[in-house]
Design brief:
Elements (H helix, E strand, L loop, with lengths): L9 E5 L4 H12 L3 E6 L2 H13 L4 E5 L5 H15 L4 E4 L14 H29 L2 E6 L12 H21 L4 E8 L5 H8 L5 H7 L8 H12 L10 E4 L10
Parallel strand pairs: 1-2, 1-4, 2-3, 4-5, 5-6, 6-7
The structure holds NADP nicotinamide-adenine-dinucleotide phosphate (NAP).
NADP nicotinamide-adenine-dinucleotide phosphate binds next to helix 1, helix 4 and helix 6.
Length: 256
């Protein structure tokens, strides 16, 4: 059996109720970490926590809206009170935003920035303070292909995810001398409830995506969870401020 790479570590995973965050939380627990689960839906988090417990792991249910910095600080204080420190943070909470730009209301623009960018910043700031005290930690922010590529009707989403990548790079340079590694995973097209909802609304068509992807499929959450374990483990100890694009080759394909 493979040794557990995160044994003894404590982690916070946002967006842990479903999709990519859920898969990462389950993978971290399998690798021996205690995992604090964050999203707005306590019900979804309780289900994930039960799954972790059933497999012998330890989880803490921490319902929180990442837009509320006071609530974020309270979650971080709760986890530190329970486990002493926080060794790993994954910021996966996020929402899509697809709209013709001239129809994008102030509210919807703000919603994407508040959840995808500000929520990531609030957790980085609060957890970073704890990690600085201990001079140790890893942070993984979830970006997107939209962090660095232009795709129509994604103005708010792209602005928020591009900023997440630059936030990652800035924090990485500031905190690496203190033993804290900050990296970004930018997933391509991954089958999750978020993607399913875009397909159901007619805002996304999987067929042309699959046709352009050299791997000839969309990604699955396991494709992200494995690399997220690697980036939180000591195996990646010299990887700092990087963006790991996981897209089955969609981005580098130079034909269609
Ligand atoms: P998902 O299935 O919709 O899951 C999103 C998670 O984020 C849920 O647990 C949701 O729970 C939580 N969340 C949303 N708003 C929140 C808020 N205000 N406060 C706290 N939690 C919140 O999405 P996913 O596909 O797994 O996406 C996860 C991340 O990957 C996102 O950042 C997304 O932008 C990024 N991404 C996804 C893809 C893809 O193809 N799926 C590609 C590139 C990047 P509640 O709604 O209950 O709060």
């Amino acid at each position: 059996m493979q040794s557990q790479r995160l044994i003894g570590r404590s982690a916070i995973v946002t967006g842990a109720g479903r999709g990519i965050g859920r898969a990462i939380a389950l993978a971290y627990a399998r690798e021996g970490a205690r995992v604090a689960l964050v999203s707005r839906s306590a019900e979804e988090l309780t289900t994930v926590a039960a799954e972790i417990s059933a497999n012998g792991g330890i989880a803490l249910v921490c319902p929180c809206d990442v837009r509320d910095s006071a609530a974020v600080n309270a979650v971080v204080a709760t986890v530190v009170a329970a486990w002493g420190t926080i060794d790993a943070l994954v910021n996966s909470a996020g929402i899509p935003m697809v709209a013709p730009t001239v129809e994008l209301s102030d509210e919807r623009w703000q919603q994407a920035i508040d959840i995808n960018l500000n929520g990531t910043f609030y957790f980085c700031r609060a957890v970073g303070a704890v990690m600085l005290e201990h001079q140790f930690g890893t942070i993984i922010n979830i970006g997107s292909l939209h962090s660095f590529q232009g795709i129509p009707m994604r103005a708010a989403y792209a602005a928020s995810k591009g900023a997440v990548l630059q936030l990652t790079r800035s924090l990485a340079t500031e905190w690496a001398p203190h033993g804290i590694r900050v990296n970004c995973i930018s997933p391509g097209w991954i089958r999750t409830p978020l993607q399913d909802s875009l397909v159901a609304q007619g805002k996304l068509d999987r067929a042309p995506i699959i046709a352009r992807t050299p791997a000839r499929r969309v990604g699955e959450v396991a494709d992200i969870a494995g690399p997220a374990v690697f980036l939180a483990s000591d195996e990646s100890s010299f990887i700092i401020g990087e963006q790991l694009v996981i897209d089955g080759g969609w981005g580098i394909y130079g034909f269609l």
